[in-house]
Specification:
The chain is α+β, with helices and mostly antiparallel strands. The protein contains 18 helices and ten strands. α17 (354-366) packs antiparallel against α18 (370-402). The protein binds iron/sulfur cluster (SF4) (2 copies). One iron/sulfur cluster binds at residues 163, 206-208, 210-211, 217, 222-224, 248, 250-251.
């Protein structure tokens, strides 16, 4: 290795060969970043934490997240890779009254990308080791230890978009990122010179205002993170979730750079329409075994079935799907999880009607969990008010109909 370190031509050639080989290894973009600490990122992460914008899913140690030398002994380079994923669903099933469907975000279509990207990095590592047997490497896929986005940006994979994704003209934001810290003295690439310009479409389209500035995300308000939590969601955010079961793609869908981009060359990410746009009602009582069979190898399963079931309940409420009342009443009465019972109450309150109101009143008499009770109380009040308003407007309509002047021909 020592001799080779002095042989700059060897490393230049190796890097060029690696770039040439990348496509054949199943990698769409590859670049090299220097392993210097990410000082600017560190400042941003500290401010982010102070402002309460973290999701809670990130690694806690900001020093480790921004200094590769704390993760790897004497790093000399970081190789960043990206692998594209599809943005379009072939033959999507229809969501309609009586058969309402939810949607999983594109980043969870097909096989879990962590597994796929790890296999791509393993192939790359084997390719490198064949040429440099003394290779030392530490591969990372969304571990939260190092920022995949900061590494990719420095390695010239793409620029940091205002929607906080790394993007480039070839693949847009539809890319998974991963990296490998190495002891190879590869020449770093330069960040690409491109930007969003004056566009603000993603910021304008975000349903919750979670993009608080260009590239600055308040994860606490981001639907993508909220769909992954397991707790009760606020009334405002439940309305914004719509029919999203996992993740949110809005700030990518509206992005003009993404227009017409649909990477389909990786069979692992081919989506099963019934899996990624499933019927909502059957999810309410899906068994652990069935859930594992259907979603076990999908990246949405990392939090278990509870968030998806809770979001399915929310979606039925947002659809105001009257046909789902019996199934939601069953959740309200029988589900052992207070969050599910409370969320079912919220949905029933939103759908309204006699059966929903009666079930809410009954539940108020039996519910013991304070948080669920609170939601049930509010949902019952909302359903009662809606019923009263409906009754009043029907009475008024009837009265007005009765006061119509008689037709002179009758
Ligand atoms: S993922 Fe959805 S909620 Fe989050 S920033 Fe983008 S548009 Fe907003
Ligand atoms: S929508 Fe516009 S501002 Fe947002 S990431 Fe795309 S190009 Fe940039």
């Amino acid at each position: 290795m020592e001799e080779r370190i002095r042989d700059a031509a060897f490393w230049t050639r190796l890097k060029a060969d690696m770039k040439e080989a990348a496509y054949g290894l199943g990698i769409d973009d590859i670049g090299v970043a220097s392993p210097e600490p990410f000082t600017e990122l560190k400042g941003r992460l500290i401010r982010h934490r102070e402002l309460g914008y973290e999701s809670g899913f990130e690694a806690k140690d900001i020093d480790r997240r921004t200094d590769p030398s704390l993760l790897f002994d004497e790093p000399l380079s970081i190789i960043a890779i990206s692998v594209g994923y599809p943005s379009k669903l072939h033959n999507p099933p229809k969501s309609e009254p009586g058969a309402r469907r939810g949607i999983l975000s594109r980043s969870s279509w097909g096989e879990d990308y962590h597994t796929v990207l790890r296999s791509r990095l393993a192939r790359l590592e084997a390719w490198l080791r064949e040429r440099v047997p003394e290779l030392r490497a530490e591969s990372m896929v969304d571990t939260g230890e190092l920022s995949d986005r900061a590494v990719a940006e420095r390695a010239g994979i793409g620029w940091s978009g205002k929607n906080s994704f790394i993007m480039n003209r070839k693949h847009g934001t539809w890319i998974y990122l991963a990296e490998m810290i190495t002891n190879l003295p590869l020449e770093p690439d330069s960040p690409i010179e491109d930007s969003c310009g004056s566009c603000t479409k993603c910021i304008d389209a975000c349903p919750t205002g979670a993009l608080v500035g260009p590239g600055q995300l308040n994860a606490q308000r981001c639907v993508s993170f909220v769909t992954q939590t397991k707790e009760m969601v606020s009334d405002e955010l439940m309305r914004k979730i719509g029919n999203r079961l996992y993740g949110c793609d809005t700030c990518q869908i509206v992005c003009p750079v993404n227009k017409g981009i649909n990477v389909t060359r990786h069979p692992e990410f081919k989506a099963d329409p019934e899996q990624v746009k499933p019927l909502l009602e059957p999810l309410l009582d899906i068994s652990n075994r069935e859930y594992k069979e259907r979603y076990g190898s999908n990246s949405s399963s990392w939090r278990g079935k509870k968030p998806i079931q809770r979001n399915a309940v929310i979606a039925l409420g947002n659809f105001r799907e009257k046909g789902a009342v019996p199934a939601l009443v069953k959740v309200l009465r029988d589900d052992p999880r207070p969050v599910l019972r409370g969320t079912a109450a919220w949905s029933l309150g939103r759908i309204g009607g006699e059966a929903a109101l009666q079930a809410l009143k009954d539940a108020l008499g039996t519910e013991e969990d304070p948080e669920a009770r609170d939601v049930i109380g509010r949902a019952a009040a909302a359903a009662a008010a809606a019923a009263e308003a409906l009754e009043a407007s029907e009475a008024l309509e009837a009265q007005e109909a009765g006061q119509e002047p008689a037709s002179p021909h009758s």
